[in-house]
Amino acid sequence: MNVRGYRAIDLEACRTLWVQLTEWHRDLYGAPEIGGDDPGAHFDQHLAAVGATNIWVAECDDDVVGLVGMIPDGTQAELEPIVVSPPYRGRGIGRALVDVVIATARERGLRTVFARPAARNAETLRFFHSRGFDVLGQVEVMYDLVSREHWRSGEQMARREFRV
Ligand SMILES: CC(C)(COP(=O)(O)OP(=O)(O)OC[C@H]1O[C@@H](n2cnc3c(N)ncnc32)[C@H](O)[C@@H]1OP(=O)(O)O)[C@@H](O)C(=O)NCCC(=O)NCCS
C-alpha cells in the first residue's frame, strides 16, 4: 500500500470513493436521499475548492482504494473527506491517510487538525480517537424544524440526552 498526492488520472476512482462515502452515510441514517442524484460530483467540487495539493490517495496493487483531504484555514485545517473502499477497511489504510494529513499539517506549521464526523458515526469516532483526535472542540447542536424521523436517542453529553 502506498499513499501519494492526487493526480488527474485518479478522478474517476475518487468520484467512486465519494459515492462509497455517501453510501456509508445513507446506510447510517437509512436515508437514500443523502448526497443527491450524483454524489460523485461532490468530489469535483471539493477538488475545485481545495486543489490537488490538499488531496491524497491510497493505492493497493495500482488500484486507488482510499482518499483523504484537508481544508486549510489559517493555522488550522479540517480533515475532510476520508474514506477507504469497503473491502479494504480495517487494514491500516485509514491510519496511513490520517498520518499524511497530520504530517503535512506539521510541515506547514499548523496548530490544529480537526474532523467533523456525524455524531451517529460511532465507528469513525472510535477510529479518530485511536488516531489521537481525543479533544472535543466545538459541538454542533441542532433544532430539527421538520421533525425528521431518522434520529435515534441514546447519546449523552453534559449529562443530557441527545439524539444523533
Ligand atoms: C473510517 C475509515 C476511513 C477508517 O479506515 P480503515 O482503513 O478502515 O481504518 P484502519 O484499518 O486504518 O484503522 C485504524 C485504527 O482504527 C481502528 N478502527 C478502524 N475501524 C474501527 C471500528 N469500526 N471500530 C473501532 N476501531 C476501528 C483500528 O482498530 C485501528 O486502530 P489501531 O491503530 O489501534 O490498530 C473507514 O472505515 C471508512 O471509510 N469508513 C466509512 C466512511 C467514513 O465514515 N468516513 C469518515 C467520515 S467523517
Can you describe this structure?
The longest helix has 19 residues. The protein is globular and about 45 Å long. Helix 3 links the parallel strand 4 and strand 5. The protein is α+β, with helices and mostly antiparallel strands and 164 residues long. It starts with a strand and ends with a strand. The model has no long low-confidence stretch (mean pLDDT 97). The strands form two sheets. The protein has a five-stranded mixed β-sheet with strand order 1-2-3-4-5. Strands 6-7 form a two-stranded antiparallel sheet. Helix 1 crosses helix 2. 32% of the residues lie in helices and 24% in strands. It has one domain: 3-Layer(aba) Sandwich (Aminopeptidase), CATH 3.40.630. Bound molecules: coenzyme A. Coenzyme A binds next to helix 1, strand 4, helix 3 and helix 4.
Task: Describe how the helices and strands are arranged.
Elements lengths: L1 E4 L5 H19 L11 H10 L4 E6 L2 E11 L2 E9 L8 H15 L4 E3 L7 H9 L24 E3 L2 E3 L2
Parallel strand pairs: 4-5
Antiparallel strand pairs: 1-2, 2-3, 3-4, 6-7
Bound molecules: coenzyme A (COA).
Strand content: 15-25%
- How many independent structural domains? 1
Name given to the CATH architecture? 3-Layer(aba) Sandwich
Q: Summarize the helix and strand pattern as letters.
A: EHHEEEHEHEE
CATH topology-level name: Aminopeptidase
Report the CATH superfamily: Gcn5-related N-acetyltransferase (GNAT)
End-to-end distance, in Å? 35 Å
- CATH class label: Alpha Beta
Overall average pLDDT: 97
| Helical content band | 25-40%
Main beta-sheet strand count, sense and barrel state = 5 strands, mixed
Structural class of the helix and strand makeup?
alpha+beta
Shape: globular
> Which stretches of 5+ consecutive residues score pLDDT under 50?
none
Q: How do the strands of the widest beta sheet line up side by side?
A: 1-2-3-4-5
Bound molecules: coenzyme A
| C-alpha-based Rg, rounded | 16 Å
Helix segment count?
Answer: 4
| Beta strand count | 7
